[in-house]
User: What shape does this take?
Amino acid sequence: MTAAIEGRGLRFGYGTVPVIDGLDVRVDTGQLVVLTGPNGSGKSTLIRLVVGLLSPDRGDVVVLGRPASDPVARRSIGYAPQGSPGRMVLPVSVTEVVASGLVKGWSGPRRDGDVDIALAAVGLTELGAECVFELSGGQQQRAVIARALVGDRPVLILDEPTTGIDRAFRPHLVGELRRRADAGAAVVVVSHDPEDFHDVCDRILFMEDGRVRDVGHDEFHTLEDVGR
Amino acid sequence: MIDVLFTSDFGRRALLAATVVGLVAPVVGAFLVQRRLSLVGDGIGHLALAGVAIGVLVGVSGVAGAMVVALLGAVLLEGLRVRGRLTGDLSLALVFYLGIAAGAVGLSLAGRFDTSVLGVLFGTLFALSWADVGVIALLGAIVVGAVLVLYRPLLAVALDEDTARAGGLPVDALNLALVALTALLVVGGMRVVGLLLVAALMVVPVAAGSKVAHSFRATLGWAVGVGAASAWLGLMVAAWHGGLVPGGTIVLTAIVAFVGFALVGRRTAVGHRPRRTA
Assistant: This one.
């Protein structure tokens, strides 16, 4: 197994209060890992450290052998933040949202085939030309996920991907992420509903008090009120 | 009287310059509006007035002074925004007042606070030389060329800055490029519709296009059309009347277009309400 994501001795705080302190974490290629834990445990902060949106006060984050701040490392990450694409003012089509995930440089390549594949992966093939704000909240969330999936990046990080998505579609999405991991990607899913991924994930990481630990599938069932 | 636009040199120059600005302004404006930075063009325009004054005071042209100060002001505004100091309207209001006040004082010191100031504020479209038109066309070409090259990354940043940054895009450089292009456009439009109205041509056609389009690209297409059509119709109205300021008639025409598009369009003024269920 090759390490796709490694966090070593991470410390990060807002002001003087550490949200993450002394955290070590590793995710290998080909793994589907669920990161869960109660509100305020530092899950989203850890994710933002990994994707380079935050810099640790102490410690290192390495993505595919490069520092997380390295542009090459960042281009290897497909990132889907929580929620819908909410800042939009002007009409933007679903295809435009998804295609924006393909842009990797000043004038990044665009392959329409990749967009079609990503749209199909989230079940939005028929809605590519629609204005994203005319979709339901769940469909908007699926468009955000498709933006992360487009282009087959080797590291996928999705924050609450099943939140707001109807239960009927969740198995399809979970299966797609499992397929990506089987194809060699490192997939990290932050979820308050790890049950969605319980049967297909390789590891469950439980985050509490700024630290993370493997809880394993059996132990997970003994935890009460995970993240809720 | 409208025929002077086609039969006289000054009319043709006015028509050409207005067309360039009408076409190009929404190209940058669409990205500004999408990023909720609609007033940045106004801020740069106000600062450019101070630039005109500085240019006159130091003995270079007002356009050169406006160019330097507009570019520096654009960088300053972006710096303030990145540091979170331009999040409210108060900061931008202070920038507006700084520009206007410094411009008024500077032009007074230079002994040039006369009716020519009105030309800077509202344009001098019928008094352009071919050299002026050449400068406007050059600035327009630079802006369009840059947006064509940077279209996808600029759109990615406009849609979601965090995701674009996480994906490895040089977000800070792209933001700086956008405000620099805005500054070039402000200077390009200064002689056409004036520093007080040039930002309107960046925003109003885009707002009109957003009422009937399904995508950003379509919005841009409609906006460019509305911008160019407003330039022509507004100029024709001004020429037909003979005593109206073209900058004002052009922007009013764009606003009429916005109202028309809003009436026939399917969207409400602000929100785009979800209509489908999951």
Observations:
- Confidence is low (pLDDT under 50) at residues 268-275 of chain B.
